[in-house]
From TrEMBL:
InterPro entries: Glyco_transf_N, UDP_glucos_trans, UDP_glycos_trans_CS. Belongs to the UDP-glycosyltransferase family. It comes from the Eukaryota. Keywords: Glycosyltransferase, Transferase. Residues 25-263 form the Glycosyltransferase N-terminal domain. SUPFAM superfamilies: UDP-Glycosyltransferase/glycogen phosphorylase (SSF53756). This is Glycosyltransferase. Pfam families: Glyco_transf_N, UDPGT. Its EC number is 2.4.1.-.
């Protein structure tokens, strides 16, 4: 919450009168960038004595088995709850249970429109509990949880994955009819986002928002309505990173903003970094760490574009050439479907041969936190998904910003213009989840951005210094007595009284 918020009285309750631990039911949107931070939050809640249940689809439960087993071993009250998906008649393949399993742009609409059908099984699960949960924390993209919470009289917070800077811009854009003005204007017009404490401009291409496509407007309206009727919001950020935007967001929203991040810092050991999101291939984390151990401190650039975006061969080749010609040591994550085509497979093998000892291509899921926390890593080429950006900042690693869609262009503005930790690669237009065959970023731009990020000089040193300062503040925020730690205490105490009634 914002700094001026008074501590809740319940924090001083004595043990003798303490009601039972509150039970939080967390409902992430089924995409890695949404599941991962909510599972981290569930872990933190459980570590702090609350009961936490994460509700998701069977495929995601299977991916999170490592997290659940680790929690069970140390006796944490964290459970995974499985709801059936996809519903019959949705036309989706059986394994299409996470945004990263959507095969093409056309499958996205059926995927999004099938999600509200989780409401029935979700309500049945909650009703079957012996006692009512204290609070439902549901992703902004899961507005179908609002009706269930309301009908059962359970308080509901929404979790919004992006930065408060983005969420504030998005909310002010909605409050002030910015989207309508943008739609009526020309493609090149620059529009100022109103009532944000720093100058922010967007174009038609970079305007803020999730579900902004005309076909998903109805879902966006439902999400905005569920946002306005929630009892508050939980955000993965920290006070010293975004204080002015947190305060303005709380004022504009009119409900508490619980700021409890960076959530990724709850992963303190090799096992939890290795199993985060889904377990990386056997031995991969050790192999990557061993490779990084051979590199000079701060010398390696890490390149990864989150869990959803996919690039076609022409763009992949430009990235590869750019990394090769930059002359810097690199780790580049190429997703399995991207690397599957024979011409890509061969091309990557040839690249690895040419850059042997200096370049490492990871095919498939990478243990991103383990990489970012290694002392050899000095820069990150990122698509500016908020988790990736915040994980980088939390480990003191400056970034090259290459936004693709949704909140990412605004996250770029935050990183570059406000926080001073980013070098833009220079993209001005979004791409859908699956790139079209145009080359958005040629190799020369990759070389320029990577060289600027990893090179010397006052500006580059300044970015590195700022990133390290934010990392130190992030660490302190999550320690006992730190702002995020204390906010989580208040959050738990606030809901201690609201649950536990007979189901
Ligand atoms: N991630 C990972 N390994 C990968 C790709 C992604 O661990 O190979 C994690 C990353 O650390 C982050 C999340 O997946 O926590 C991606 O979230 P983000 O918001 O950055 O991007 P999105 O996937 O939502 O576009």
């Amino acid at each position: 919450m914002a700094p001026a918020e008074p501590a809740v009285a319940a924090a001083t309750t004595t043990t003798a009168t303490l009601p039972p631990p509150p039970h939080f039911v967390l409902v992430p949107f089924v995409a890695q960038g949404h599941i991962i931070p909510l599972v981290d939050l569930a872990r933190l809640l459980a570590e702090r004595g609350a009961r936490a249940s994460v509700v998701t689809t069977p495929l995601n439960v299977a991916r999170l088995r490592g997290v659940a087993e680790q929690a069970a071993r140390v006796g944490l009250p964290l459970e995974l709850v499985e709801l059936p998906f996809p519903p019959p008649g949705s036309g989706l393949p059986d394994d299409c249970q996470n945004a990263d399993m959507v095969a093409d742009n056309y499958q996205f609409l059926p995927f999004f429109f099938a999600l509200p059908e989780l409401a029935g099984p979700f309500e049945a699960y909650v009703r079957a509990l012996a006692t009512r949960p204290s609070c439902i924390i549901a992703d902004w993209c899961n507005p179908w949880t609002a009706g269930v919470a309301k009908s059962l009289g359970i308080p509901r917070l929404f979790f919004h994955g992006p930065s408060c800077f983005f969420s504030l811009c998005d909310l002010q854009a909605a409050n002030h009819g910015l989207h309508e003005r943008i739609a009526a204007g020309g493609d090149e017009d620059q529009h100022a986002v109103p009532e944000v404490p720093v100058p922010v401009t967007v174009t038609k291409a970079t305007a803020p928002g999730f579900l902004n496509h005309p076909a998903t407007e109805v879902l966006r309206d439902e999400a905005m309505e569920a946002m306005r009727t929630a009892d508050g919001v939980v955000v993965n950020t920290f006070l010293d990173l975004e204080a002015q935007f947190i305060a303005c967001y709380e004022a504009a929203l009119g409900t508490p903003v619980w700021v409890v991040g960076p959530l990724s810092l709850c992963n303190r050991d090799v096992e939890s970094t290795a199993s985060r999101g889904k377990t990386a291939a056997a031995g991969r984390q050790q192999a990557i760490t061993a490779w990084l151990d051979e590199q000079a401190p701060g010398s390696v650039v890490f390149v990864s574009f989150g869990s959803i975006t996919r690039k076609l061969p022409r763009q992949l080749f430009e990235i590869g050439h750019g990394l090769e010609y930059s002359g810097r040591p690199f780790i580049w994550v190429v997703k399995e479907p991207e690397a599957a085509a024979p011409e890509v497979r061969e091309w990557l093998e040839a690249l690895e041969a040419r850059t042997a000892g200096r370049g490492l291509v990871v095919r498939g899921w990478a243990p991103q936190l383990a990489v970012l926390s290694h002392r050899a890593v000095g820069g990150f080429v990122t698509h500016c998904g908020w988790n990736s950006l915040l994980e980088s900042i939390a480990h003191g690693v400056p970034v090259v910003t290459w936004p693709h869609f949704a909140d990412q262009f605004l996250n770029e503005q935050l990183a570059v213009s406000v926080l001073g930790v980013g070098v833009p690669v220079g993209v001005t237009a979004p791409v859908m989840i699956f790139d079209d065959d145009t080359v958005a970023v040629p190799r020369e731009d990759v070389v320029r951005a990577v060289s600027t990020l990893m090179g010397g000089g006052a500006e580059a040193d300044g970015r590195r210094r700022k990133a390290k300062e934010y990392a130190e503040k992030a660490r302190r925020a999550m320690e006992k007595g730190g702002s995020s730690y204390e906010n989580l205490t208040q959050l738990i105490e606030s809901f201690r009284q609201s649950g536990g009634k007979e189901g």
